[in-house]
Amino acid sequence: MNVRKEAQQKKEAILDYIRQLADVPSYYKHNQLVQGIINAIDDKVIEKGERLPSVNTMIEQLHFSRATIVKGIAELIDRGVIGSQKRLGYYVLGGEDEKIQSIALVMYNLDTFEEQFYRNFRAQLSKKSGLMSFSITEI
């Protein structure tokens, strides 16, 4: 298979992973981007050293704002999942960083679960008690 065609298919698969999360009600778009890329990495759709779709491609294909894409990318970099090369784009970290990446993926999933749990808890409590809003310190 043509290398260029294979790379294009991988990028499209990554975008599909991100799109699949569009119906998750507790995900903001940047969470959808982050979790979609993490899922693609977990499923070996994209592996260490391989490049992600460009920011412009993600904007065009996902119809997300540049700010949303940049926020999701920054979160993945902060968590040690991806790196960047100036003017070359973003790529999946690997090698020595693989253990750090695995820990980062687990921690992100736990953090996301806690956030989803809190949002759902807050919505259900609000419905049942008639409260319009409250903060975590009020519980």
TrEMBL record:
Record carries keyword Transcription: yes
Q: Which GO terms describe its molecular function?
A: DNA binding; DNA-binding transcription factor activity
Q: Which residues form the HTH gntR-type domain?
A: 27-95
InterPro entries reported for this sequence? Tscrpt_reg_HTH_GntR, WH-like_DNA-bd_sf, WH_DNA-bd_sf
- UniProt keyword annotations, A-Z: DNA-binding, Transcription, Transcription regulation
Is Transferase tagged as a keyword? no
Q: Tell me the first and last residues of the signal peptide.
A: none
Pfam families noted in UniProt: GntR (PF00392)
User: PANTHER family this protein is in?
Assistant: GNTR-FAMILY TRANSCRIPTIONAL REGULATOR, HTH-TYPE TRANSCRIPTIONAL REPRESSOR YTRA
Protein name, per record: GntR family transcriptional regulator
